[in-house]
Amino acid sequence: MDRSQDSHCRFPITTIVSIRIGWGLAIFLAIAGDWIANEKPLYCLYEEKHYFPILEAPLVEMGLKTWPAAFNRGNWREIPLQDAVQTLIPYSPGTIDRRNLGLRSPMQTWTSQSTRERHWLGTDRLGRDVLAGWIRGFRMALGIGVLSMLLAAGVGIFFGGFAGFYSNDRLRLSALKALVLAIWLAGACWWGWAALVTRGSSGPVFTWLLSWMVAGLLWWWIPFPGRRIAIPADSLLTWVIQAVDAIPALFFVFAFLPLFEKPGFAHVILLIALIRWTGIARLARAEFFRIRDLEYIQAARLLGVGPWRLAWSHILPNAMGSLWITLAYGMAASVLLEAYLGFLGVGLPSETVSWGSQMQQVRDSPSAWWLAVFPGLALFWMLYSLRKAGEKWQFNT
């Protein structure tokens, strides 16, 4: 049986279609969640003026638009709207239903004015709607998983490809230039970390970082005199990868998160990317090392194609087939790590609603089965779909 037949047997069309439908639903809920579960109406008429609160809320937060003071009080049910088009679920993930405080299962009797205001998946210990938080969990999981892996892929492919292309003997620089670049790299790490800690709010830090990056570009292209030496790019990358992989992922996050005064969404994405880039770099290094000496690459080199164009225009497209597999598995690991952090209550602000934060409440209230079952099923489906997608790419390459 050839590979295509074996791949078809392992992944029947029903499995592929179900995964695509599931992913389409997950992406839809992640993007359109605010239009489905929100205490703000889609449209309202107030004091003879038309408003679109869900669309206008981000503009109001940024100071680009103003709306009536009554809208800023937070309780939209008490606003005497003349007309309104409500969302399907009348609760935001952080909305506290004061008529149904505390843990309530989906089977209980609700104190509500209509069937629409029922909490179909129950409430958490604060009286927040579990279904609204469940929908928001898709945005949190996909947002952190996709963004962290995009960042990890950029870093891993660049450094892995650089090491695989040049190995230990193909990158030759003058000793003075190598020393200057080593100092520049240390300074770039320092100023990058300072900008991260200050969240880019410090003007001098941002100015120094920008100036340092420009100086690095100039130092790279300016010729330096002196004897050329071979830079062991492959060995240096291997040592860094071994050092990062030697630290367990959770320990790595716990060690660096306290360094931030107020950890947020961007910090979690960055730390996950710093953990996950090593696997991509290792595979990119192997693929570049394998492809760089193939006949068509040698022919392109003889035709005068430069090293950078050779690496990123000819080698990288042929290496991406294997890299997609690592990206799928890495995204699954990132989604699971985000759930771990939410379950442990670290990383994101305490008011952030995610699948992990919902399941975390079961530790104190084991009888609240709905807080474990529904987020757990969503997390299982995400991980299952990513694993199957990775296996499908693996058997198709």
CATH architecture type of the domain at 133-171 and 231-396: Orthogonal Bundle
Counting DSSP E segments of at least 2 residues, the number of strands comes to 5
Instruction: Give the DSSP E fraction (strand runs of 2 or more residues).
Output: under 5%
Alpha carbon gap, first and last residue: 16 Å
Secondary-structure element order, as H and E?
HHEEHEHEHHEHHHHHHH
Determine Rg (CA atoms, Å).
Answer: 26 Å
Q: Any idea of the CATH class of the domain at 133-171 and 231-396? A: Mainly Alpha
CATH superfamily of the domain at 133-171 and 231-396: MetI-like
Q: Looking across the biggest beta sheet, what order are the strands in?
A: 2-1-3
Major β-sheet profile: 3 strands, antiparallel
CATH topology assignment of the domain at 133-171 and 231-396: MetI-like fold
Protein structure class = mainly alpha
Can you describe what's shown?
Helices cover 62% and strands 4% of the residues. The chain has 397 residues and is mainly α. It has a domain at 133-171 and 231-396: MetI-like fold. The strands form 2 sheets. A 3-stranded antiparallel beta sheet has the order 2-1-3. A two-stranded antiparallel ribbon has the order 4-5. Helix 4 runs antiparallel to helix 11 (307-344) and helix 8 (249-256) crosses helix 9. The longest helix is centred in the C-terminal third of the chain and has 38 residues, at 307-344. It is elongated and about 80 Å long. The protein starts with a helix and ends with a helix.
